[in-house]
Design goal:
The chain contains nine helices and seven strands, in the order E-H-E-H-E-H-E-H-E-H-H-E-H-H-E-H. It has helices at 20-25, 46-53, 65-79, 99-107, 123-126, 131-148, 164-169, 181-191, 214-236; strands spanning 7-13, 34-39, 56-59, 84-87, 113-117, 160-163, 196-200.
Length: 256
């Protein structure tokens, strides 16, 4: 526990057998109470490795997509009593040791959500992020900050921490089951006026790490731009969107 709160790490997994052990070995188990792996119908030995490590495993009988996997992650974590949930990819691209810092930023009461940014500092390109992805990240983030009235260094990190209050208040069932889920969830959190912080995070790109291809990246980018535009029109009251529903009331924060 940390600050009297139960810390849960969720691992949305798809064919992560080659990297799962390395990821798990660096999770700070001195403060983490629960580690949950949701396997999205992997075709490798992900589940066998997770069982060997003693993780709590939820297995999808069919592939539900990246967003569908996360929905199961968060539902399971809440059902098991999590107060702070850190979503960490088991592909070892992000630094698991930052779980403590991210959870502490929420546990202190200063933030409701925390993003681990690859762009703060020089971690992205040094860690091997392809140049086209770096340029796309910077361009999309610039546009999104304009449309969403924020000042984030990036919107596209797959390493995030959420308070129980956020997960209980956001209508995640309205979000996509595909990769744009991350962006839609973040837009929902902004629309509900949750406090979002960032922390610098090194990243690693290597052969065994997961990465979407160029075509999927383009589809994701278009989805991100659509989400941002929909958000802005919704905030202006021009066009209500089901992703956000009625204008959100101030969130009711769960007390420890």
């Amino acid at each position: 526990m940390l600050h009297g709160k139960k810390i849960t790490v969720v691992l949305p997994a798809y064919n992560a057998a080659a990297t799962l052990r390395r990821t798990y070995a660096e999770i700070p188990l001195d403060i983490v109470d629960d580690v949950i792996l949701v396997d999205d119908a992997s075709r490798d030995e992900t589940v066998a490795v997770a069982d060997e490590l003693g993780l709590t495993v939820v297995r999808h009988a069919r592939n539900c997509g990246y967003g569908g996997n996360q929905k199961t992650c968060y539902r399971t974590a809440l059902a098991r009593g999590a107060d702070i949930v850190v979503m960490l990819h088991p592909d070892y691209q992000y630094a698991p040791r930052l779980v403590t810092a991210m959870a502490s930023m929420i546990g202190s009461g200063e933030y409701d959500a925390v993003l681990a940014s690859r762009i703060l500092g020089k971690g992205a390109l040094v860690g091997g992020m392809p140049l086209y992805k770096y340029v796309a990240n910077r361009g999309l983030t610039f546009v999104q900050n304009l449309l969403m009235g924020q000042k984030l260094s990036e919107y596209h990190s797959g390493y995030r921490a959420w308070s129980r209050t956020v997960l209980e208040n956001l209508p995640l069932d309205r979000c996509s089951d595909d990769f744009v889920f991350d962006n839609q969830m973040l837009a929902q959190a902004m629309g509900a006026d949750f406090r979002i912080g960032e922390i610098s995070c090194p990243t690693r790109y290597f052969a065994e790490g997961s990465s979407i291809n160029f075509r999927r990246s383009v589809v994701y980018g278009l989805g991100v731009l659509k989400t941002s535009l929909v958000y802005r029109l919704h905030r202006w009251g021009v066009r209500a969107d089901p992703l956000f529903g009625a204008p959100a009331a101030k969130p009711v924060r769960t007390q420890p």
